[in-house]
Design brief:
By secondary structure, this protein is α/β, with parallel strands linked by helices. The protein folds into 3 domains: 109 residues, 3-Layer(aba) Sandwich (Rossmann fold), CATH 3.40.50; 149 residues, Response regulator (Rossmann fold, 3-Layer(aba) Sandwich), CATH 3.40.50.2300; 147 residues, Alpha-Beta Plaits, CATH 3.30.70. Helix content is 46%, strand content 17%. Strands 7-6-8-9-10 form a 5-stranded parallel β-sheet, sandwiched between helices. Strands 12-13-11-14-15 form a 5-stranded mixed β-sheet. Strands 1-4-5 form a 3-stranded parallel β-sheet, with helices on both faces. The protein is flat and about 85 Å long.
Length: 425
Amino acid sequence: MLAHTLAQQGFNTDSGDSIEAARLYVDADSIDADSYDIICVNQELKDGPGEEFVSYCNRHESLKDTPILFLTENRELKAEELEVRVDSVIHELNEHQIEDQIVHFIDLHLDPVFSEGRILFIEDDEVVVADILAQLKEAGYQVTHFRTAEEASAEFDAVTVYGSHAEAYDLVITRLKLKGTMSGDELVSLVRSYEDGRGFIPIIVITDIDSDERRIALYQAGVNDFLQKPILHEELLIRINNLITNKRLLDKVHDIRRELFALATIDNLTGCHNRHSLMEFSDKFISTARRHEYPISLLVIDLDHFKAVNDNHGHAVGDIVLEKTGALLTESFREGDLVSRYGGEEFVVLMTHCDAENASKKAEEIRLAIENLKPNGLDITTSIGVTCLEVGAEGDFEAMFHAGDKGVYTAKEGGRNRVVYVAID
């Protein structure tokens, strides 16, 4: 069961049922003990207690820092009660609970997401600065230190990434009373004012305030935790680790959500939105345009003679043509426009704040760009139908698509490689 669980997490395993067998693995000349990422030891082994092998690992030069997982039927046993160093105790409950505990252990001890962190530190007391910086760097954190809130504010504003991005900050530690015109309170308010992921970064405040009302007010302002002076080293690291670990866990959840969203809405081949995404968001695009009274235009882009590409050059080449066309379209439109692959060789683009004249100009630019694209050395052209829902006009996405599709049909009837505008009926 252990081997199966670890294999699902991407690990190869060596296993034995005795201390002797385990020692042979770590001592064998053919095995580099440094290659072991984790050691799982049962409390009871065939030839003695598991603690004996753990003790051997603790003394082994290549294994002394390797995370150790201790399995036991004793549900009351805790890691700190053992006389040997283990990183976690797993109680043998049932298979699913054991698997969950192992995965959690791997995340915390082996996933680099949880063994590092970037901290923005604001403090002007030189003694406190020296003490805390030494502790944080020794613990492996990357720390950027400023003495004023103004400097920290400029830095935080400049680092526009957030979440699990490698350059994103994971924690802010600030003193309330700082030199300069900006206080720690104001810095907290500024951080919380960001509408992107930066606004949710955990914040620890260093303070000597013991007023309940003041602490409650700071909690309401968005502070996550406090460090009372004098600062205990162990408490500092525990609080930091807890906040960064929770933040990183949430980052992973958000990453998974984004991946699932992309799988549901993005066409894998072209990188454009898929047909489902177009149908999901088109009505919202149109209703927003009506509410804010701006025109919205639609392009239907159909590659000419695409069946001949597949027939003469194969579907692999056809896929290259679609991939390159999708990349071109994605790069050619604004972030607020919706570029989608409707199906086969047909693409649909919804353009906000775009009237009929500008839509026709954009369509002509796209026609020329595709003609000059030459994907895989092939001459590819396109027929484009254009329509626009002007301010105050009636119509929905179905009506817009019908008009755009009619434009494509007319363009193909007229010789292909051209743009045709069709008004909505």
